[in-house]
Amino acid sequence: MEGDIERVLISEQQLAQRVDEMARDIAACYPEMDPGLVMVPILSGSIIFLADLIRLLPMKMKLGMITVSSYSGAVTESQGASLKMDLNIDIRGQHVLIIDDILDTGGTLRLVRERLRLHEPKSIRTAVLLRKPSKAPKDVVADFVGFEIADEFVVGYGLDYDGHYRNYPNIAVLKADRYTTG
Ligand code: 5GP
Ligand code: MG
Questions:
Q1: How far is the CA of 99 from the centre of ligand 2 (A)?
Q2: Which atom of ligand 1 is nearest to the CA of 70?
Q3: Strand locations in 46-107, DSSP E?
Q4: What tens digit of pLDDT does each residue of 27-41 get?
Q5: Residue 94 and residue 35: Cα distance in Å, rounded?
Q6: Is residue 127 within 8 Å of 143, Cβ to Cβ?
Q7: pTM, full prediction
Q8: DSSP 119-134
């Protein structure tokens, strides 16, 4: 796996430090409240971020899951977000925090927010680990953002290319020939 990496953009240590800061910001935003908080990770890219983040949060919470796909197979351009598996938990009257790996064109977040609103939660906020500012749309904003990155395709810390590299601990760019050969 290491041999496929061109360059590390964000190291494991930088990720840990920033996720810790994000957890503090998020905790400050949700003081002990009733009803509780529901985390809704967008699968599968957000799983590592989710696992690290929620273990740093002190409040009681439930986890819901929703699966959206915009890249299938060996591609690095979004093909438009589509719902693969709907929310598996009741969020009516609850505070919801959507967790995603990266905000790019905004199609994924827009779709998920529209879906979740149908269930009439009390509030919806969003935390994303990464944001590509060059494409970040005006109307789709995240409440909590880890890092701004340049407009290049990244892998690691949950993010995949053609299903691989989710377990790579840093955020990185692959060697150019790895993208074309899949
Ligand atoms: P959007 O719908 O905002 O265009 O894209 C968000 C989704 O596309 C993310 O949840 C992620 O799954 C995927 N995505 C966007 N940029 C990248 C990237 O650089 N690398 C990877 N692995 N996935 C990306
Ligand atoms: Mg995703």
A1: 10
A2: 8
A3: 61-63, 66-69, 82-85, 95-103
A4: 999 977 667 899 999
A5: 6
A6: yes
A7: 0.94
A8: T--SEEEEEEEEE-TT
